[in-house]
């Protein structure tokens, strides 16, 4: 009886092959399937209420939309109530009848979903609703490529992960590399920085080939390309103060020490909009957004020409992420640095990119100016990514699912997450 009930719920949550799904181990299923399996676990005791705590935060947009639809349908059909905890109001708009906004442990505002989204009364709620509305104007192309990736193949051991990838980046511009987990975005960053030598092809800087391995590159070649990592908690040494974290870059590349180094560290902190006194703090004394700003200051300390930003806002709340994006745009205007921005978040792409490269399973499927890529016709996978980005509009999820069903009924090709 228990197995029969589990199989019924597997089917209800649209998990593949409900009759045998329960025999799989967690490592044998995808992230989206795991999240739906956890929902099944919560539903088995037939509770009156289920609390969902950021259930889709770690999922790609295409997987997220399927999980949201499955959860909402199952909760409705089973007659259960749900509390949905998230920092993303666009998701709330698809899931909730009422919204409660919290800040610093206190209730800021509560009301029906449509009223909160369309006519927020409190300043903090308005800030959440209006976040990331900024979109960077697209810069015209014109200069020679500063950084080029030419026909690169790469592998981890015997497993190939990049296939004939070519990307170029001009000085002062931003190329966004877009794709889901496993598409090869971060592997491309490792190839460019020399952390993973390619099997075939080359990386060029200012028209000259770079040695494939980090160990073979000259100090100045290392200096010119810097990397800001996704997780600042992992990227920062918890035993070092900020002065040492940022200052050791100055010492390594320029031989700067003593009082001069301290002054330069303080200047860099102010450049990323942190107080100079933060130089004496440890990472544990900083918020997530402050840690990421320290990582950006460390990259800027090398006076690079290219900064690779690998999912630098994905671990941050939307307001903090928006502030980091605005900071990066300002720094680019002031310094002329070029960004290779790796992300799966199309809202981030619209805010910061000049050019877009779309990757799928280690291959570039489409690339061009932002205005070209975001305008139809799209490659089917680009269309899937674009149509899966939640909008802060009640009924958006219903509309997207209905449009996809109608296109299928007309016999049009509609790529879904399962088709990747």
List keywords for this structure.
420 residues; alpha/beta; Rossmann fold; 3 domains; six-stranded mixed beta sheet; four-stranded antiparallel beta sheet; 17 helices
Overall number of structural domains: 3
- Give me the secondary-structure category: alpha/beta
Estimate the mean pLDDT confidence. 90
Largest sheet: 6 strands, mixed
Please give the CATH architecture of the largest domain. 3-Layer(aba) Sandwich
Q: What share of the residues lie within helices?
A: 40-55%
Estimate what percentage of residues fall within beta strands.
15-25%
- Would you identify the CATH H-level superfamily of the largest domain? P-loop containing nucleotide triphosphate hydrolases
Strand order of the largest sheet: 10-11-12-7-13-14
With helices defined by DSSP (H or I, 4 residues minimum), what is the helix count? 17
Q: Examine the coordinates and then state which fold CATH places here, giving the name of the CATH topology of the largest domain.
A: Rossmann fold
- CATH class membership of the largest domain: Alpha Beta
N-to-C span = 35 Å
Q: What is the molecular shape?
A: globular
Ranges with pLDDT <50 over ≥5 residues? none
Tally of DSSP β-strands: 14
